[in-house]
């Protein structure tokens, strides 16, 4: 036991972890945490009122040393504030674990937009703090999980109506980590994101053209993307530029000849 709490070693990795009961006013949610769910906060409030606050939040110390950032347990923190609690049991972990734990937070299963948003925020944080680190460095991979999440995060920032899950099967085969500094890679990912947004606009144009032929259903966008996907039948990795050049070319052709969608294997 120390003055700052109970220190012990994580039994799996042997890292130093500290348990402490901290003032709630010194705790805040890390800026790239997913948006909280109001219904979930209400359920947590009900749980605390019934059985108490039994599960600690997980936090890292702020860079300036003034307080802690909660990386797991934002719903518990918000519920505690609603209930007027003044102190919370907290597991304080090393700062370098913060990025990795955000990607693995399973309190609420994130959708692809949320995963992409978190990945982009973490990616930008690493780029600002360590611009020379290679994008394919182990720390970057463990923090963002998949390179295409960063590209999709940028695409969502440009067009929030994007259906990222429809493009993910193709991106997995052509949008991998680059062997360049993360500072150099960010403009490349911006450019790739613009190609996804361009593709999205063409997909919507093809869908509009199909409506004029009386074709409307919930999966029409998926059918269009499948028909235009130039690498759907292969498993190997492909260059992004070549793949999307062909993809955009096929989409442009489908806009002019929408009934070809039905011959595209979608």
What percentage of amino acids are in beta strands? 5-15%
Report how far apart the termini are.
63 Å
Structural class: alpha/beta
Helices and strands, in N-to-C order?
A: EEEHEEHEHHHHHHHH
Question: Which sequence of strands runs across the widest sheet?
Answer: 1-2-6-4-5-3
- Rg, rounded, reads 23 Å
Q: State mean pLDDT (0 to 100 scale).
A: 87
Number of domains: 2
The biggest sheet amounts to: 6 strands, mixed
State the total count of DSSP E strands. 6
Helical content (DSSP H or I, runs of 4+): 40-55%
Name the descriptors.
6 strands; 51% helix; 6-stranded mixed beta sheet; 266 residues; 2 domains; elongated; alpha/beta; Conserved hypothetical protein from pyrococcus furiosus pfu- 392566-001, ParB domain
What does this structure look like?
It is a single chain. The protein is α/β, with parallel strands linked by helices and 266 residues long. The chain has two domains: 6-95, Conserved hypothetical protein from pyrococcus furiosus pfu- 392566-001, ParB domain (Alpha-Beta Complex), CATH 3.90.1530; 110-263, no CATH class. The protein is 51% helix and 12% strand. The protein is built from ten helices and six strands. It has helices at residues 38-51, 74-82, 97-104, 112-129, 138-144, 147-158, 164-174, 182-211, 220-228, 240-256, and strands at residues 6-9, 16-23, 27-29, 57-61, 68-72, 87-92. A six-stranded mixed beta sheet has the order 1-2-6-4-5-3. A hairpin with a 6-residue loop joins strand 1 (6-9) and strand 2. Helix 6 crosses helix 8 (182-211) and helix 8 (182-211) crosses helix 9. The termini are far apart. The model has no long low-confidence stretch (mean pLDDT 87).
